[in-house]
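Sat 14:20. Reprocessing the chain from the morning session after the first attempt stalled halfway. Input below, unchanged.
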Amino acid sequence: MSPTTSADERRPAPHAADAHDLIRVFGARENNLKDVGIEIPKRRLTVFTGVSGSGKTSLVFNTIAAESQRMINETYSTFVQGFMPAQARPDVDVLEGLTTAIIVDQQRMGADPRSTVGTATDANAMLRILFSRLGRPHIGSPQAFSFNVASISGGGAVKYERGGKTVKERRSFTITGGMCPRCEGRGTVSDIDLAELYDADKSLNEGALKIPGYSMDGWYGRIFRGCGYFDPDKPIRKFTEKELNDLLYREPTKIKVDGINLTYEGLIPRIQKSMLSKDVDSLQPHVRAFVTRATTFTVCPDCDGTRLTEAARSSKIEGIGIADACAMQISDLAEWARGLDEPSVAPLLAKLVHTLESFVEIGLGYLSLERPSGTLSGGEAQRVKMIRHLGSSLTDVTYVFDEPTIGLHPHDIQRMNGLLLRLRDKGNTVLVVEHKPEAIAIADHVVDLGPGAGTAGGTVCFEGTLEGLRASGTVTGRHLDDRAALKESVREPSGRLEIRGASTHNLRNVDVDIPLGVLTVVTGVAGSGKSSLVHGSIPAGAGVVAIDQGAIRGSRRSNPATYTGLLDPIRKAFAKANGVKPALFSANSEGACPACNGAGVVYTDLAMMAGVAVTCEECEGRRFQEAVLDYHLGGRDIAEVLAMPVTEAEEFFGSGEARLPAAHRILQRLADVGLGYLGIGQPLTTLSGGERQRLKLATHMGEDGGVYVLDEPTAGLHLADVEQLLGLLDRLVDAGKSVIVIEHHQAVMAHADWIIDLGPGAGHDGGKVVFEGTPADLVAARSTLTGQHLAAYVGG
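Finished this time. Tokens:
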């Protein structure tokens, strides 16, 4: 027997379990996917790329991750599933080899004023326990340090059976919470400008109330006229003190008007419940504008904005209270926690220090735990969600990331790449949707979707290695090595916008002149003070159009036509051409199909199982009544018009019988931002992140303003789309606008006329202007991190 034969005989046959090293997807048809079939290697880092709207999110999040989460949920009892969100099975033929998926997406964190960075990451929970054990004076349990728990006490008689007798006892209870009673744990108190609620020179019947929806023609009119507390025909200026108090502050009181039981309540408590207690961004635009006008928010004078009671602030560890700890920069707080030597709470301290160090490692050491989570950018929110996974001991998990480099300076991208590789090296499958070449470069496997966006996408154009992608000839492959060149000549400014003594957040009395009439880029590492400088010193309004990263809110009934205001002129044109009411041409109003209420589908709720959506049989998904579809404009009915892509609709409303300049202008702006392929009636819920960002940009382009402020407009944009964005910015400047862009993308920096670089670091290590000048000067000087990376990018 030869040695070789002997070795072969001793080698065991492959185990059957080792054959499942691939995630297999066959026949995926979610959104615009066209029967996609693909095999993804496990325990590797796979990057999905392609133009915005090509189907990356549909494949990775809506198919692979969604099915993994649905199957995990099905392992729970039906009782537990009843409390969980029901998920439908994705539209796919075969999904094999799935592992547990952990999704780290770009969804902005809740804007609830009680939610902070500390509460969202459990760092606050650990701090509360720490202070309840070590804080002096001792004031109570961890609840006593929570600004979400109010102090309450109560008592009363209770009856219960004991030994066949009814026994009556008096019981009392006390809960000591940390919530400041003045601001109820919000840190701010609101004051209402009465002049914005009513016109004192008018009576109620003359329309004195300025509050949206408070018309005297409906229920409010019936309540105000029938309550008897004041004369609705008397001008409010002549109200007695009691009448004015009843109008503004009266507690809910049952009244009877025309034999109907109603509830009367003063204006201020009513609008506090209906408007002021809600997230401002979730309100309708006209209500949001009213709330902004009518209310002013000031720091709570009792707790000085800390949200905590005096007792919670008085308990300290080595001279530091919990409010002081939450206000510290996290990198400083980690250093303080490391210095505590308390064996009695050693495990807690170790966990707290690890969590705080994770913030620093991921590039968020400049935040503080008291920072409201709703103020975080999309990139910051995604990295905060990553915190809890960095120290996880789980392996063979699928981590799914949505553009984790968004909001990161080129200097920080290398660090993010290292974290993704660490997760992979622990034996996990890492799936990343990404556009940045620096992030694509670390992939073990690349999947390129396209070739175009929307209906022109939805197929796999390439899968393989990075070198293979470069040689593939796909849109991504052709643009992977694109580098924008520095401008040969820059525009001369037409004026200056002076900023003096800017000190918002970490800014250190910054004095800077922003040139007008040119393209100005404000850059610097994440947390250096860019947004604080621009948004804090250039207020929106008065000729300033600010386009931030805030999410577009909208239900499945919202679409580009409703969001941009395009539907209004279209409805009026249909109404005028056919001699009927405009409301007939709205699927959310009189023209809606009665069977599906204008949704196009009929939803059946199946409790803990996924609901079923079936195309409405009566309107066949067109959302309108049959009678409405008999009315035409330019030979098309309203359903056919809403099914058009932007480019076709632009041509339709640009000439001929259906010529409509108001609609044509809006459609031109949508085409200008690269959304020509988008259906104007497509639900907003089906749009990708990059498409939503550009939709918002197109909407604001129609506003009158001399200064445009854009916050990272390249977020979610493919390499091929960045060139189109630069052309758009040039057109805005050439039209006489001043464009100020907060941006990390080197192509935008290279294309700028003027660069303002902040730093040198983040948090209290930043807040200074470290460079002002042209991109060429920045590259030549190489005096800042931005300058070094831009020089490497342009090959300078």
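The domain at 188-299 is CATH 1.10.8.280 (Helicase, Ruva Protein; domain 3).
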